């Protein structure tokens, strides 16, 4: 299959001021610096982007700022998340019109959904756009997860071309790869060891920690692509400290706290989430030491 997306896609934070307005300058500067560091794409409105806490106006502005900042230098894969199919379709069409290069499709659910309902939600998103769609599965947080049969069925839709898996089960990734038979490509999340996912055939990773260590993340990707697995694992062990901190604390708080340490005025996570604790800030600072 022909594929366009690969490599390191940082999950961007959503900097929101006390007045509820997007902090355009902080977000644009972060995007510009990440691109300069060599990342392969940008992913606004993922989990690190606090999509569940943002209103429609804030989501629209974040995508606008990221698309403008990217200026065509790297692809922008915008997160679409909703509890209703109609709202997901609306977001998809809006973000395509704003200039996004791809859609990251997330299902929010309150009541349980069967496989047919889950399939139809994602199929409706794919049918609403000509852009490539990345399915996002995160069983730790989602009430309605994508089963292997649903993934296999969705992989037969022409523009459903990627899946970003945030489970902690690397064997599940192999099962998905076997099921989709090359019709869909796999991106890892921070819950997985990126080098291991690359070894079994992954295309890269979409993850919040790449916001904090973009150059090291890109180096890791390059080492994997070159087949230098010894070098990749040496770097991976250092980068994994970030992932461990990420797993111990609120995700948005962890990444926003780390960015604040690096001089980006992105602010705190949206309430009722708490900011990163002093202990957490110290752990993130230690994990970052000498990385980037």
Briefly characterize the structure.
The chain has a single domain, classed as TIM Barrel, CATH 3.20.20.70. The chain is 47% helix and 12% strand. The chain is of the alpha/beta class.
Topology:
Layout: E1 7-10, H1 24-36, H2 56-70, E2 77-82, H3 85-98, E3 102-107, H4 115-127, E4 133-137, H5 148-154, E5 160-165, H6 170-180, E6 185-188, H7 194-199, E7 204-207, H8 209-212, H9 214-225, H10 229-248, H11 251-261, H12 278-288
Parallel strand pairs: 1-7, 2-3, 3-4, 4-5, 5-6, 6-7
Helix pairs in contact: 1-2, 2-3, 3-4, 4-5, 5-6, 9-10, 10-12, 11-12
Task: Explain what you see.
The protein has 292 residues and is α/β, with parallel strands linked by helices. The chain has one domain: TIM Barrel. The protein has 12 helices and 7 strands. It has a 7-stranded parallel β-sheet. β3, α4 and β4 form a beta-alpha-beta unit. α1 packs parallel to α2 and α11 crosses α12. The protein is globular, with a radius of gyration of 18 Å. It starts with 6 loop residues before the first strand and ends with a helix. The model has no long low-confidence stretch (mean pLDDT 93).
Helix content: 40-55%
- The strands making up the biggest β-sheet line up spatially as 1-7-6-5-4-3-2
**Into how many domains do the coordinates divide?**
1
Structural class: alpha/beta
Measured between the Cα atoms of the first and last residue, the distance is: 34 Å
Strand content: 5-15%
């Amino acid at each position: 299959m022909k594929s366009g997306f690969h490599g390191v896609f940082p999950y961007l934070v959503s900097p929101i001021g006390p007045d509820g307005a997007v902090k355009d300058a902080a977000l644009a500067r972060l995007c510009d610096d990440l691109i300069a560091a060599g990342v392969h794409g940008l992913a606004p409105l993922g989990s690190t982007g606090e999509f569940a806490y943002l209103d429609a106006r804030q989501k629209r502005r974040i995508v606008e700022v990221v698309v403008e900042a990217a200026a065509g230098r790297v692809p922008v894969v915008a997160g679409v998340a909703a509890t209703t199919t109609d709202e997901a379709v609306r977001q998809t069409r809006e973000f395509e019109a704003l200039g996004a290069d791809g859609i990251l499709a997330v299902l929010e659910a309150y009541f349980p959904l069967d496989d047919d309902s889950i399939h139809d939600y994602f199929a409706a998103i794919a049918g609403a756009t000509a852009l490539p769609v990345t399915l996002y599965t995160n069983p730790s947080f989602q009430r309605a997860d994508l089963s292997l049969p649903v993934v296999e069925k969705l992989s037969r839709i022409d523009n459903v071309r990627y899946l970003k898996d945030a489970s902690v089960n690397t064997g599940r990734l192999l099962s998905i790869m076997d099921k989709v038979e090359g019709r869909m490509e796999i991106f890892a999340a921070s819950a997985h060891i990126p080098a291991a996912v690359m070894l079994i055939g992954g295309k890269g990773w979409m993850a919040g920690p790449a916001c904090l260590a973009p150059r090291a993340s890109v180096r890791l990707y390059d080492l994997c692509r070159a087949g230098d697995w010894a070098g990749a694992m040496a770097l991976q062990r250092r980068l994994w400290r970030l992932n461990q901190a990420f797993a111990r604390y609120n995700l948005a708080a962890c990444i926003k706290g780390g960015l604040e340490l690096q001089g980006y005025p992105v602010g705190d996570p949206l309430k009722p989430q708490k900011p990163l604790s002093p202990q957490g800030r110290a752990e993130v600072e230690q994990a970052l030491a000498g990385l980037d």
